[in-house]
Design a protein that fits this description.
heterotrimer, A mainly alpha, B mainly alpha, C alpha/beta, B: mainly alpha, two-stranded antiparallel sheet, two-stranded antiparallel ribbon, 17 helices, 4 strands, 2% strand, C: alpha/beta, Rossmann fold, 3 domains, 6-stranded mixed sheet
């Protein structure tokens, strides 16, 4: 029963309680992910033992590999599209909308962008700009279609995005098959038209090379990193510094209150989906720049993993970055485990899944503990005033 | 059409199907194709629809209890792997048992996360979708790679559970005596149009796999369980109004768990089916081919009823089967005409209801389909692949008012929150 | 005659309030006993205790002469008590039969015995004169029929004592007649009925005995023959009303908010707001009196824009806003203090300075063009915090850490600070301690003096009479009376509110 009377004595805020509460909040925020990762490592260790591998040798290999500059460059390269995918998913999540269709959106966007990019030859900036714009437009349109179905027909956005995903992947699978028919899939020249060098974003290898040493091997630090950073910054600014971002978050936190506060629910949902898809369209840019075209072996799974990373990072721009790097680290590790034969690399995939599940459960548990805490503190305040 | 409404539901559906088949037969004549209504097409449809239907039935149980389960595909993958392993080591029926257990295990994780911990149901489903392939890949490497004929992404060939043919209709054995093959005899006469009906009938009664029989037999069983047993009633209240159930003394948590586990078991069965010789014959990575999601679509299109799920699954399995057997592309091309006609009918229906936006929309899409049919000679096979998804979107777009989802599907339930 | 139920000295305390204070209730077997009182009088709590959903802090309960302690509704059901809630606990997509038998299904090895179930249900229905079709889906039933299903649910389990919580709240007149017919039948068959109602003419029509509660205490137990609706109204509301505290009138002739012939329909196409006409002038506070559930919520929603008006028009300072979006109305100068601060007024997990922006994010000091002005928001929130005395360590804490009273102060502070032309305040001081309440009233009066028009909806008569320049009474969606706060008598006000003076 809500209290009908609320007699409180005059309370002066004490500095120690304020600091305590921030500390406590930080602790609680980190508890879930740290706990989840620890749990997954333990589970992985056990699994490795059972499989007959030496877990400590495996971890040693993983860390050793990660300390090499080339690996670190590769990790950042892999984290870049993952990060963009995470932000795309996070935009939807902020409004309680699940854009599961990033997988299809980024591939559609990539094919169109690669096609257009390969068909024209413009001066550098425009060429690159065109590719990026096309990718964003296609991604936004594909997500927007699901958004319209949601706002105007009430079709659940999960179903709509999954269905459109299926359509996109089906079309692309056919395109891949037709390319396969044309030539050996392993050939470098199969796929869309090659993009002229004016359309390729220059790499950033000069940064680590200036700071540390020359890179061995063929890996370059992708220039798309700039795009990823820009996406992150725009995400943060949009969400926290604009009225639109405020209204987006309000709609996610309390749709009824947001509505009473003047936020138009349908327009907001549609805009969120368009934005999410637009960013999602950028996920494939790195691969296009790397290979110069959309080829049959285009990287997959970035959409789903992006969703996982957004969950891990709690939709926070920095959190998502950490999640992306973690995911990339795990991927790099799986390579070295494969090469050295220390352990099956699939253990990494399982770790990803376990981390995701435990983190999600962990967040829920933490949130419940926090609510109970707050309720207890509020009740304590009330009883000490009525006694 | 009004006369049809007066028949009891099952007869009405049989009549509608018959009319549908006849319509297809007519279209066959018009378009000069001949794959739409053959017996083997009917049998193939049955086989391809089965895993979709099983996934859909899994989704049915879960959502009727108020839990959305989008991780069905993942549970199918688990079922497929454990089913394959079980079949190799202990025979097909043991394989089925293991597959069911495998799917249920995946569902257990989902249940713990969503029912006990209140994690968002979609998020939990996505997590399972990510985790399940990883687990099976790992297991394949450890186990299948060491088998003869196995590899890191697939298992050795699996054996079949046996065949079944309906007695009398298609000449099956009845306790050792071979009964007359009535439909076969009729088909040999080769009457126009009517023979199409009987061909289809024979196609679904001759030489079916045991798994197929079991799968389709589940439909009336599940309908009975959900609507005629105490267990089923209590499961359904969890999805419609858990607070009411709680106020009448029902342990909502227990029934939600049970329903989710059953949903995983059914998905697991679906996975076993895909790996069985009926379809692929081996466990292979990726062979679920989104069957879990298509099953969910069958659930929606089927309005959350078992028979509806079956109808939806057949609807989605039909083009799949057709595409694989249609060597000259003529039959799939004819489907475009069918689609156009159906959409025009929808447009007319909406016009009569004064719903003009829908009329224009349906008319436009129907027109596009008709145009495509007239312009082209064959249809690219990618269209067949995406057809189920398009059909779902179209049905949802034009028919959502008729559909009735369980009231609280997707909402987390906590005891005592009224 | 034997007592079916006897409650002696029931006391129940919650943090900050005593819901039931030494309540005595005696219900004779086979009678229809009404419990009346305003919102907050303690009726619901008492019924929850009787049904085993809560335990009393003090006092004893006796059923059919035997002392009882209930730990859950199951105990109450076992004792023969059945409760029909105000908000039905029915699953629309299931049949009447399924809803009724749920939890007590007759089965044969797990399979529901449909014949036995159906026979029993029809038997129970016939015995008490309640007609329902067992196979009809509940969602296809009229409201009155659904209520019958709820009643059959408890009778099916052998309840002899029925508790009905505001049973007529959702019924139209002919359904009420039907219900009363059923109640008399039940009584004739030996059932005892205890029901909560605040509509006095109904109570007088059907009850054998009436108990009146006010502020958690039993005020009187009377027989219908002994009292009039006016007497009852006075008992419910108290013999003394607070005095009006409006000093000089600041009411101008400019109409700030005009509502003309406004009708809002519910899902069953019944009018919950029925042809309402009202005008709020600049500098005027118009109070709406009425028991909750008579359309006030929907009136507010229609004015704000979250509910669609089926007919009628709304003007704000002369501009027709009937078809404008919520955003336009808010930025046009309508402020809102919603009746449920958690559901509609706050973003609980967000910090205070973001909550202060809700509803005002599109203009200064919170919004500037496309940008959200964080320093501006923080400054404004600090100002609100000190001016409205919001007790919190700082403005960074999330809104859910504030006590209910402070949350309410935050909402009021943010709305008044935006200097609206019209303020819609629904139960603005609910949950605030007396001192803070007075402060809020002062703030509202100041704004009123500056020309703000206010629509005040409240169940607190102190508040209504103390603040309003004029009071309109809302009953069943219509405005049934206009009264002058300075001269209205308790009997008059209570009568209008409870539909007695019809």
């Amino acid at each position: 029963m809500t209290g009908l009377m609320d007699p409180l004595p005059k309370m002066t805020p004490s500095p120690s309680t304020a600091a305590d509460s921030t500390q406590r909040r930080l602790l609680m925020a980190l508890a879930a992910p740290v706990g989840a990762i620890t749990f997954s490592f333990i589970a992985a260790t056990i699994m490795l033992f059972i499989a007959g591998s030496n877990p400590f040798e495996a971890y040693g290999d993983m860390l050793g590999h990660a300390s090499k500059l080339e690996t670190q460059v590769s990790m950042i390269n892999r984290a870049t599209p993952l990060y963009i995918s995470g932000v795309a998913a996070a935009i939807g999540f902020k409004m309680n909308l699940f854009n599961i269709g990033v997988e299809g959106q980024y591939r559609m966007a990539a094919i169109f962008a690669a096609y257009v990019g390969g068909a024209v030859a413009l001066p550098g900036v425009f060429h690159i700009g065109l590719i990026i714009v096309v990718a964003m437009l296609v991604g936004a349109a594909w997500a927007g279609l699901a958004g319209v179905l949601y706002t105007h027909r009430g079709i659940n956005e999960v179903i709509a995005t999954i269905m459109l995903n299926g359509v996109a992947l089906g079309v692309i699978a056919w395109l891949v098959r037709s390319w396969q028919a044309e030539g050996n899939i392993a050939q470098v020249g199969v796929g869309t038209e090659r993009i002229e060098s004016s359309g390729i974003i220059p790499n950033l290898s000069w940064i680590p090379e200036t700071l540390f040493r020359d890179l061995t091997g063929t890996g370059e630090l992708t220039g798309v990193l700039i795009i990823a950073i820009a996406v992150g910054v725009i995400y943060h600014v949009l969400l926290n510094r604009t009225i639109f971002g405020f209204e987006l978050r309000a709609s996610g936190l309390n749709p009824r209150a947001a509505r009473a506060g003047g936020v138009p629910p349908r327009r907001m949902a549609l805009t969120a989906m368009l934005l999410s898809g637009g960013i999602g369209g950028l996920v494939g840019i790195a691969e296009i720049m790397d290979k110069g075209r959309y080829n049959p072996n285009f990287v997959g799974g970035l959409g789903f993993n992006g969703i996982g990373i957004a969950l891990l990072g709690r939709n926070h721009p920095a959190g998502i970055a950490v999640g992306a790097l973690l995911w990339a680290f795990l991927e790099a590790s799986s390579d070295i485990l494969q090469n050295q034969g220390t352990a099956p690399k699939e253990i990494i995939d399982i770790m990803r899944g376990v981390i995701l599940l435990t983190v999600v459960i962990g967040y829920e548990v933490v949130s419940r503990i926090r609510k109970r805490d707050e309720a207890a503190r509020a009740a304590a305040r009330l009883t000490e005033s009525t006694s | 059409m009004k006369a049809l409404d007066r028949l009891p539901t099952s007869l009405r559906w049989m009549a509608l199907t018959a009319i549908g088949v006849l319509a297809l037969a007519v279209i066959e004549i018009i378009t000069d194709s001949n794959g739409l209504t053959t017996g083997s097409q009917a049998g193939a449809t049955l086989r391809w629809a089965a895993p979709i239907m099983l996934a859909g039935l899994g989704g049915l149980f879960a959502e009727r209890a108020g839990v959305v389960n989008i991780g069905l595909d993942g549970m199918m993958i688990l079922g497929m792997w454990f089913g394959a392993w079980g079949t190799i080591n202990y025979g097909p029926w043991a394989g089925l048992a293991f597959g069911i257990l495998g799917g249920a295990l995946g569902a257990l994780v989902h249940a713990i996360a969503t029912v006990s911990f209140g994690v968002d149901q979609i998020i939990s489903g996505v997590a399972i979708l990510i985790a399940a392939p990883a687990v099976t890949r790992y297991l394949s490497i450890e186990i299948f790679a060491d088998y003869d004929g196995g590899a890191i992404t697939q298992s050795p060939r699996l054996e079949s559970a046996g065949k079944f043919t309906f007695p009398f209709f298609a000449g099956g054995d009845l306790f050792g005596w071979k009964s007359p093959d009535m439909l076969g005899w009729f088909n040999a006469k080769d009457y126009p149009i009517v023979s199409d009906l009987t061909e289809v009938a024979r196609g679904i009664t001759f030489n079916l796999s045991m798994f197929t029989v079991v799968a389709y037999a589940l439909i009336p069983v599940i309908a009975f369980v959900l609507w005629r047993t105490r267990f089923g009633l209590r499961v359904r209240i969890c999805g419609e109004n858990p607070a009411a159930g709680e106020s009448q003394g029902i342990n909502i948590y227990a029934y939600k768990y049970a329903a989710v586990l059953l949903s995983g078991a059914l998905a697991g069965f679906g996975g076993v089916f895909i790996a069985s010789p009926e379809l692929g014959g081996i466990y292979q990575e990726g062979s679920t081919n989104s069957a879990g999601f298509i099953g969910l679509s069958a659930l929606i299109v089927g309005n959350w009823r078992p028979a509806g799920v079956m109808a939806g699954a057949l609807l989605f399995g039909y083009p799949r089967a057709l595409g694989l057997r249609d060597l000259d592309g003529g039959s799939t091309h004819a489907l475009l005409l069918v689609a156009a006609l159906v959409l025009f009918a929808v447009a007319v229906g909406n016009f009569r209801k004064r719903n003009y936006t829908d009329t224009v929309l349906a008319g436009a899409i129907g027109g596009a389909s008709l145009l495509w049919f007239l312009i082209s000679d064959t249809v690219a096979d990618w269209f067949i692949g995406i057809l189920p998804f398009i059909i779902v979107l179209l049905v949802l777009t034009f028919f959502s008012q008729r559909l009735r989802m369980p009231a609280t599907a997707g909402q987390a339930y906590r005891k005592g929150e009224t | 005659m034997a007592l079916a139920i006897e409650l002696k000295g029931i006391t129940k305390r919650f943090p900050g309030v005593v819901a039931n204070d030494d309540v005595n209730l005696a219900v004779e077997t086979g009678e229809i006993h009404a419990v009346c009182g305003e919102n907050g009088a303690g009726k619901s709590t008492l019924m929850k205790i009787l049904y085993g959903m809560q335990g009393p802090d003090e006092g004893t309960m006796h059923v059919d002469g035997k002392t009882m302690t209930f730990t859950s509704p199951a105990d109450a059901i076992a004792a023969g008590i059945g409760m029909v809630h105000q908000h039905f606990m029915l699953a629309g997509n299931l049949s009447v039969l399924e809803n009724v038998i749920l939890g007590s299904e007759p089965t044969r090895s797990g399979v529901i015995d449909q014949t036995t179930a159906r026979a029993h249900l029809i038997e129970v229905g016939a015995a008490y004169g309640l007609e329902v079709d067992p196979d009809e889906f509940v969602e296809n039933l009229e409201v009155g029929e659904r209520q019958r299903v709820e009643i059959i649910k408890v009778l099916y389990r052998g309840a002899k004592i029925l508790i009905l919580d505001e049973p007529t709240a959702v019924l139209v007149p002919h359904e009420v007649d039907e219900l009363f017919r059923n109640m008399r039948e039940l009584k004739a068959d030996g059932a005892t009925i205890l029901f909560i109602d605040h509509k006095l003419e109904e109570v007088l029509e059907i009850a054998d005995t009436i108990t009146v509660l006010r502020h958690g205490q039993t005020v009187a137990t009377v027989k219908p023959a002994e009292v009039t609706t006016g007497d009852l109204a006075e008992l419910m509301v108290g013999s003394q009303l607070p005095t009006s505290q409006t000093s000089k009138s600041t009411v101008t002739n400019d109409v700030a908010l005009g509502v003309e012939n406004l009708t809002v329909l519910d899902d069953d196409n019944r009018p919950v707001v029925d042809s309402v006409n009202l005008q709020i002038h600049r500098g005027e506070i118009v109070g709406i009196a009425g028991v909750e559930g008579n359309g006030q919520t929907e009136l507010v929603e229609a004015i704000i824009g979250t509910a669609r008006a089926s007919t009628g028009s709304i003007t704000l300072c002369g501009d027709d806003i009937t078809h404008q979006s919520v955003r336009h109305r808010r930025s046009g100068g309508i402020g809102l203090v919603p009746q449920d601060r958690h559901e509609e007024g706050l973003l609980l997990e967000a910090p205070l300075w973001e909550n202060a922006a809700l509803g005002h994010q599109m203009k200064m000091p919170f919004g500037r063009g496309v940008w959200f002005d964080r320093p501006g928001a923080r400054d404004q929130t600090e100002m609100i915090r000190s001016k409205f005395d919001i007790r919190s360590p700082d403005i960074e804490v999330s809104a859910q850490t504030l006590s209910g009273g402070n949350q309410q102060k935050l909402i009021i502070g943010r709305e008044l600070s935006a200097e609206p032309d019209v303020l819609i305040a629904a139960h603005p001081t609910r949950g605030i301690d007396v001192g803070a309440q007075a402060a809020v009233w002062d703030h509202i009066r100041t704004a009123r003096a500056d020309g703000m028009g206010t629509l005040l909806i409240s169940a607190d008569l102190d508040e209504l009479i103390g603040l309003s320049d004029t009071i309109l009474v809302m009953y069943k969606g219509k405005l049934v009376a206009t009264v002058d706060p300075a001269s209205v008598t308790p009997r008059e006000l209570g009568s209008y509110m409870t539909g007695a003076a019809q």
